[in-house]
Amino acid sequence: MPTLLLALAVVSTGLYAGFMLIFLTGIMPALARLTDEEFVTVMRRVNEYVPRAVFLTVFAGAVVFPALALAVPAEGGPGGRRWLVLAGLVCAVLNHLVTVTGNVPLNNALAAAGDGEPGPARAAFESRWNALHLLRTLLVTASFALLVTASLG
Asked: Does the model's pTM come out above 0.85?
């Protein structure tokens, strides 16, 4: 069971890290080229559609599966690699804290900004959101690397 849980931790964290990396390296640079009105409209739509079942399952799995892998002691489990799983879990939890306390409130503020002039809404959102997104991408990528390393031992 611990081996399966560690495998699920690696898969969910890898999927989440990939999603974050695509946003960092592809989606946000592409959106940066849009006008203020286009940017605000697209980000509002993204923020409406991303938090759905598939994303939320992967998002939760990045924390739940490493935690379960640590909680289920058994032969053939992570054993001496438990510290790697714990470190991966800590990185994933920090990622989630950045998301919940940083990115989500910015998403909500952008949604609540109204349909007036989009320039100030974008200015209050984009650079802060991107900085927080870089941090959470690094955290979940570190989590993924730690969990992969734990699974190889």
From this structure: yes
CA-based angle 17:133:30, to the nearest 5? 90
Whole-Å CA distances, 109 to 6, 18, 49, 113, 129: 37, 26, 16, 6, 11
d(CA 25, CA 98): 19
d(CA 7, CA 69): 9
Q: How far is CA 83 from the centre of its chain?
A: 22
Q: How far apart are CA 29 and CA 106, in angstroms?
A: 18
Cβ-based neighbour number of residue 58 at 10 Å:
18
Q: What pLDDT is recorded for position 74?
A: 55
Cα–Cα distance between 143 and 126 in angstroms, integer? 25
Provide the 3-class DSSP secondary structure of residue 74.
coil
**In the predicted model, what is the mean pLDDT of residues 18-23?**
97
